[in-house]
Amino acid sequence: MKIERRQALKSLAATLFAPALAQAQATGAPVKLALIEALSGAFANTGEAVFRNLLWAVERVNQRGGVKLPGGARPLVLERYDSKGQAEEAIASLRSAIDDGAQFILQGNSSAVAAALLDAIDKHNEREPTRRVLYLNYSAVDPALTNERCSFWHFRFDAHADMRMAALMQVLGQDKGVRSAYLIGQDYSFGQSVLREARRQLGAQRPDVRIVGDELHPLGRVKDFLPYATKIKASGADAVITGNWGNDLTLMVKAARDVGFDGKFYTFYGNALGAPAAVGEAGVGRVVAIADWLPNLPTAQSEAFYQSFRQRFPRPQDDYVHMRMQLMIEALAQAIERAGSVAAVPVATALEQANVSLSGQSGRMRAADHQFQQTLVVGVMDRQGSPGVKFDVEGSGYGFRVVRVIAPEKAELPTSCRMSRVSV
């Protein structure tokens, strides 16, 4: 039975993702996608990880012949622009991408950069209607981006911070071992919104939990988190709640381990990019992460999806794979074909109705605010080989066991968006 299952998984992976190194059959002019991300500096590892995900997704579309349009099939081309994680550099990259003929802008790592790009794209599209672009966001999760700052030109494919916090609270709410919590985050719009929502939801769902610390730190500039870790331990907190990502998370959990903090970490991004290896054995049963998908989701389709990514990017440190980025590219390809055009307005109108599935995972775009609705999962760190942990993270020997699956309709939250729509 094990051999048959293994063969079935290999067959499924080959059918779905036979990698994407084959020459595309599309012959028309390429559809240019511009990735604007930190590809150097403190968060370069996050930008490169995103690039691998998007490259794989683009390859898959091209392997099946590109996007079908009335004038013939056209391949997708992913071009890289280094923002260095800075808003000013991102705006300069946006101008370069548009001058290079990019029609779709992809960015996500940093809500501050996202807000700057969104403003610039709104202004550009108003000034130059013949060169309009769409902005596809895979990770910038400040709730304002699809609420009071929502835009017809912006589509978010990650669950926003309030949705992620609500999912985490479904687990923390039942964790009676947590009687006190320390809130810590990066000092910009996203980090601030995470702590604000943590306070609100703790008050509503766990009023018995005392908040024993509440602080923000500079984004990407702290090299030594020992002073923060020392305060966390001294506070007597049973748990830390944080939206930190990249090196700001990795360095923090390393410091917490070094000072002997033995509480839990309820995180948005504790499942990748060095965090599991950094915390090591101390994280078993203690690091909790919320995601749109985890490698140990117990389905054959999910396993085949992950195995195929590992075949494409075989080094352990390259296994930062996100389903939402794959669904985003699938949704874009679907919208272009449905619109019969790569022009911004018809593609945006079609993208509002996107409903896509891949490897047993699915999602739909909510037209009211352009917030993607999808399944969320919560996982707890454990040793590879433990029940429910077939796959580890980045060769660390530790992976995440799925403890909660939240259906899209349960993860969905209301929106305050009042969007101004644009017609052709």
Task: Explain what you see.
This protein has 424 residues and is α/β, with parallel strands linked by helices. The chain folds into two domains: 226 residues, 3-Layer(aba) Sandwich (Rossmann fold); 165 residues, 3-Layer(aba) Sandwich (Rossmann fold). 39% of the residues lie in helices and 21% in strands. The protein contains 13 helices and 17 strands. A seven-stranded mixed β-sheet has the order 9-8-10-11-12-16-17. Strands 4-1-5-6-7 form a five-stranded parallel β-sheet, with helices on both faces. A three-stranded antiparallel β-sheet has the order 13-14-15. A hairpin with a 4-residue loop joins strand 14 and strand 15. Helix 2 crosses helix 11. The longest helix has 20 residues. The N terminus is likely disordered.
Blueprint (SSEs and pairs):
Blueprint: H1 2-17, E1 31-37, H2 44-63, E2 67-69, E3 72-74, E4 76-82, H3 87-99, E5 104-107, H4 111-127, E6 134-137, E7 154-156, H5 161-172, E8 180-186, H6 189-205, E9 210-217, H7 226-234, E10 239-242, H8 247-259, E11 264-267, H9 275-279, E12 287-291, H10 300-312, H11 323-339, H12 344-351, E13 355-358, E14 361-366, E15 371-374, E16 376-383, E17 398-406, H13 408-411
Parallel strand pairs: 1-4, 1-5, 5-6, 6-7, 8-9, 8-10, 10-11, 11-12
Antiparallel strand pairs: 2-3, 12-16, 13-14, 14-15, 16-17
